[in-house]
Write a structure and sequence with these properties.
By secondary structure, this protein is α/β, with parallel strands linked by helices. Helix content is 43%, strand content 13%. The chain contains 13 helices and 9 strands. The strands form 2 sheets. The protein has a 5-stranded parallel β-sheet with strand order 7-6-5-8-9. Strands 2-1-3-4 form a 4-stranded parallel β-sheet, with helices on both faces. Bound molecules: phosphoric acid mono(formamide)ester and norvaline.
Length: 316
């Protein structure tokens, strides 16, 4: 079973969790756990020796860039940071031409950009695996690390409830799909007009493995009896001009002690980071005893190592 899942992952793209079966996600989480344990024990494991991953960034990054670069290096390979300002893509070379050329040099391409369609176009024209490092629509790498973190903290995934409070953005979409696929109940609250994309909600409902999806404008309803409370910035990269308007619109959606009274007493707080203390979450919550945001950030490197090995590694 494990062997056949490993085989079906070789050479695949990772564009959205919608394309991944629950057993494939579970395989990646198991591998991430094993890799983390090995690293803590100081074991050297280099299945990506000689492999090169290109990292195209059209947006800023701390965690994604550093965890991919350090991760591929620790696995024996090399990462190439390709800012779109420095490669010809930023001067109008087509995505298709870029994909074909880069495929002849590299063993994998990670891209962080705006439109999901651009990542799809890159993947359609590349002959090496393409990994989505965040678009306006999805952030699947983050959710692999999030699921790993929840498993570590709660010991399980299936049957838990995650409440995502805030903008129906890339994080909301990927978390909803990841939760649905892993049997985790998902509820989200945002102001009208800022809820997750209806098509993605429908998709998540179709693939949900015995878990529910609740979409509401009421944050108290969303956090009711939740095991995990998650939030993200109110204005994502590319929405900087809307920052002030969004601060007003979302003010009733701040994750604070008052709201958390409605969650389970042993709730876990999560945030993909970077965070704006005093906006989407209070400092008391994100820096408090229920918060696992740094464990979650650390898991980016373990989860992505698992992903790179599964997609780009040679041995099964
Ligand atoms: N969470 C996350 O993707 O962080 P970066 O934007 O720093 O990569
Ligand atoms: N929603 C945020 C996530 C950052 C990791 C953004 O897209 O800016």
């Amino acid at each position: 079973m494990k062997q056949s899942v490993a085989l079906q992952l070789k050479g695949r793209d990772f564009l959205t969790l919608a394309d991944y079966q629950p057993e494939e996600i579970e395989y990646l989480l198991d591998l991430a756990k094993e890799i983390k344990l090995n690293q803590k024990q100081g074991k050297v494991y280099q299945p990506l020796k000689g492999k090169v991953l290109g990292l195209i960034f059209e947006k800023s990054s701390t965690r994604t860039r550093v965890s991919f670069e350090a991760g591929v290096y620790q696995l024996g390979g090399t990462g190439l940071f390709l800012s779109s300002n420095d490669i010809q893509l930023g001067r109008g070379e087509t995505i298709a031409d870029t994909a074909k050329v880069l495929s002849s040099y590299l063993d994998g391409i990670m891209i962080r950009t705006f439109a999901q369609a651009d990542v799809e176009e890159l993947a359609n024209n590349a002959s090496v695996p393409v990994i989505n490092g965040l678009t306006d629509t999805y952030h699947p790498c983050q959710v692999l690390a999030d699921l790993q973190t929840i498993q570590e903290v709660k010991g399980t995934l299936s049957g838990l409830k995650i409440a995502y409070i805030g903008d129906g953005n890339n994080m909301a979409h990927s978390l909803m799909l990841g939760a649905a696929k892993m049997g985790v109940h998902f509820s989200t609250a945002a102001p009208e007009g800022y809820l997750p994309d209806e098509t993605i909600v429908q998709k998540a409902k179709e693939v949900a493995v015995g878990s529910s999806i609740t979409i509401t404008t009421d944050p108290i309803e969303a956090v009711q009896d939740a095991d995990v409370i998650y939030t993200d910035v109110w204005a994502s990269m590319g929405q900087e001009s809307e920052q002030q308007a969004r601060e007003k619109l979302f003010s009733a959606y701040q994750v604070n002690q008052e709201l958390l009274i409605h969650a389970k007493p042993d709730y876990t707080f999560m945030h993909c980071l970077p965070a704006h203390r005093g906006e989407e979450v209070t400092a008391a919550v994100i820096d408090g005893g229920h918060s696992v945001v740094f464990q979650e950030a650390e898991n980016r490197i373990h989860a992505q190592k698992a992903l790179m090995i599964a997609l780009m590694g040679q041995e099964v």
